[in-house]
Amino acid sequence: AAGAAGLALGATGGVLVQSAVGDDPTAGGSGASGAPASLGAAQVAFHGDHQAGITTALQAKGHVLAFDLAPGAGRREAAALMRRWSDTARRLMAGETAPTADSGIALDAGPCALTVTFGFGHSFFDRTGLTARRPAALDPLPEFSADQIDPRRSNGDLWVQIGADDGLVAFHALRALQKDAGDAARVRWQMNGFNRSPGATAKPMTARNLMGQVDGTGNPKQTDPDFAKRIFVPDAGPGPAEHAWMAGGSYAVVRRIRMLLDDWDKQPLDKQEQVIGRRKADGAPLTGGTETTPLDLDRVGSDGKVVIPSNAHARISAPAQNGGAAMLRRPFSYHDGIGPDGAPDAGLLFICWQADPLRGFVPVQRKLDRGDALSEFIRHEASGLYAVPGGPQPGEYVGARLLE
Ligand code: HEM
């Protein structure tokens, strides 16, 4: 799944200096100019209605990690940690050094579109005595029949997503945040990802995944009238007052999805295209047109069969087939070397954003799990669901509306 997050503008946690990233919201960080001189200067706002790293264009490097609060740490320690983390994130995203004992790893670089995004897992609320304020949307995801989930690399009290267009800048942020955790929390799991680098393509275009597919085309666009409603929790919803702290927030579903690349790469091109229902070269539907032409799901070919196969991934996951369920897919690819069987441990750190997982990820994955054509080439190996609160206002730390 998919590339394409749009540019962050104004109320959606804005990009202050949008230089290395083009104006096509589906362009995974690959800018029109891609001028190396401006790449470092790209800066994303820390403050805003929404946290950065949701609608921000895909960055070239990413780290996602979860922490568990240490034994004995509760609400007070969690609040102090969120305060430290917010201060560090704000400074690093502005291209400044870390507040304490900066490691020097990013000294010569600009912010490189660094974003840091924080979320809370289901277990966080029990650990901090805040169970009554845990939204029902954080209820554990259902188990899917094809899941092969490793619990040690899943869930966790706190979740952090780091993205930047430079590997050293991203790692620098990772180290600083890990040091900030101090005695309050320890890393539960950590994963590293990447996307195309800004300037790698001659013109901005939707990113590709490790199967070679153009991935992100069907994402909701920030210009869609219902974009905010689908992706962000409304300000004053009908929900209970104890959940008001999530206003402007979003729910992140994180799945480590291994790609069985050796099997995939053996498939002939036409089979690969049938699996998705789109052409590999340009991402256009098999029913024709360009990448952005809508899928013609009813078109029947001369053989009497639907042109976009009934089990094609793009058909089964299409919002029209799922009661309008929509999510913003904003993944990183990963590669963790070659396994003992000689196969690459590689795939997609699938991250999708929605106002309500029961109206986004869950119904779509339920259908895909019944056997879309892609299923035999992938394996879900880890899973997490996190409540990502709204963006901080100046002077506020992320999560203050829950923890104060
Ligand atoms: C569409 C790949 C997993 C949901 C697509 C497309 C590709 C793709 C190539 C067509 C282009 C596009 O619209 O982005 C993959 C791969 C996956 C994966 C390689 C796993 C490694 C998932 C999962 C979900 C999902 C787990 C959600 C449960 C969607 C949605 C669309 C889509 C909603 C857009 C459909 C539309 O709007 O027409 N995916 N996908 N995908 N995928 Fe996936």
TrEMBL record:
Subcellular location: Cell envelope
Any coiled-coil regions, as ranges: none
One Pfam assignment: Dyp_perox_C
Dyp-type peroxidase C-terminal domain ranges (all copies): 206-391
E.C. no: 1.11.1.-
Main function: Involved in the recovery of exogenous heme iron. Extracts iron from heme while preserving the protoporphyrin ring intact.
Protein name from the UniProt record: Deferrochelatase
Organism whose genome encodes this protein: Streptomyces bambusae
Family: Belongs to the DyP-type peroxidase family.
